[in-house]
Amino acid sequence: MSLPVGLTEGAGWEIGVSRTIPYRVDDVWAMLTAPHGLARWLGPLDELPTVPGTAYRTAEGTTGELRSRHERERLRLTWRPPGGEESTVQVAVSPEGEGRTRLRFHQERLRNAEERERQRAHWKRVLDGIEEALRATPRAAGGPTPS
Q: What is the distance of C-alpha 113 from the center of its chain?
């Protein structure tokens, strides 16, 4: 018997969204881990922990724990929004040719198919916001790579 799309035996309901954007990995990583970038995908937070096992709490009350951090590659953490259930989020970056980066958000341990669809829409908006913030960044600080 096959499982519905998005449902796995090991991680329950999960969703992944990705996009290739015209920015260097270093610039995308810097955005994701800076306070203004963290606010776009995690919530207002001065600094994300660097040591696995360290807890975090955003100004909006989202809590969790850093599970792993591989600089310029990926972050994996638990994520519990106020009043919500805990899930696991992974953010990954990888080079996709000269001056381009594949940015991925993956979330697992979601409650059901409806939450999966809500989170799909959420992560797509997050990708839009991160790309918008990178466009607003001067080239010297990580703006778009010329075509």
A: 20
Question: Could you give the dihedral angle defined by the CA atoms of residues 49, 118, 120 and 10, in that order, rounded to the nearest 10 degrees?
Answer: 70
Segment 29-50, tens digit of pLDDT: 999 999 999 999 999 999 999 9
Query: Is residue 132 exposed (0-12), middle (13-18) or buried (19+ Cβ within 10 Å)?
Result: exposed
3-state SS string for 90-135: EEEEEECCCCCEEEEEEEEEECCHHHHHHHHHHHHHHHHHHHHHHH
Query: HSE on the CB side for 70, CA within 13 Å?
Result: 9
The pTM assigned to this predicted structure is 0.88
What would the pLDDT profile of 124-146 be if each residue is shown by its tens digit?
999 999 999 999 987 534 444 44
What domains are defined for the chain?
11-137 (3.30.530.20)
Q: Which amino acid is at 108?
A: E
Taking each helix axis from N to C end, the angle separating 25-33 and 113-135, rounded to the nearest 10 degrees, works out to 110
